[in-house]
Amino acid sequence: MSITKYNTTLRKKDNGWQVIVSYKTSTGKWRQKSKQGFSQKWEAKNYGNELITQIKNEPVLNTDYKDITLKQFTDIYKRDNSTRLIYNTLQAVDSAIKFIGDIAATPLQEITALQISQKFTSSKSAPATQTLYLSMLKTILSYAVKPYNIIAVNPLIDIKINKQRTKKDLRVYTDQEIELLLCSLKPKYLRYYVQCAIGAYTGLRYGEVLGLSWADIDLTSNTLTVKRQLAQYDKNKYKLQDTKTANSIRTIPIPPILSAILSLYAPLAPVNDMQLLFMQKSSNTAPINRIIRRFIKNKSFHDLRHTYATKLIANKVDIKTVAALLGDTVQTVIKNYIHYTDEMRQKAANDVANIFG
After folding, report:
1. Secondary structure of residue 78 in the 3-state scheme
2. pTM for this structure?
């Protein structure tokens, strides 16, 4: 970066020392970088020298976009990544931009961490919503750093949302509920019966279930391959497309009970050019969830995925294998799908009693 002038300020703050480096860029604008918490003045001074070196070594910014606003650049980001961003992600991006209000009209090079942080601090939105918005904004600003080189560093890189500790509801089916659900669906709702059976015995997402073709199923080796999903790409519009992530493309074993269900369903399945198991125009889970709740209250199709993962863990399948079967990362499995069920609590109680007497 081309610096025409700079100065360093050292001051006492919060029982320690703070260093502030103010510098004037070739564009004539003054900027600051600072850090506090040093126990000795000389430590703060030395860090100030490091900051000056860092500033001098920062790349020369792309002046073609020096006045572009965050909102304008977001449109570029969406355009460049239109083939990989799914509809829900685009909606999240738009919501994040709306959330920060007038900051979106600020030139990228003038946006500070403090501006954004204050928006989140004053917001009454749920921590999960704020985390989503912050993730979208970080991604967009990182894209402005590379490949566009409009800003040198992402100002949001160190911002985090203070998540409230809330107890997660146990949204898993018992074995008895799974049996009741499938037995109740089979006589009147064949399509939903087979879909729920696939969900219960494979943990597939609903869109992945609807993307299955008979070519993806090997009833001889008892395996199933996930290659695509039915997903939303615009308001009330759905199409077959790539899976949620690269990890989601996978071949997984299926139990004999599911192979038997699919064998019986095959001659009754709708005939279509793509050999899809189900011919649906939408992957919206509202219709199937309404039917599920006729028989099992407060449960959904996605809870079958939770149940599948929990059951595998409870039966000592290692988390890496569970993640591979679900098409997710280990971190996602731990965070979202592993629940401490009543059965697991009882087993733990029995183990403790046996160990300690």
Report:
1. helix
2. 0.61
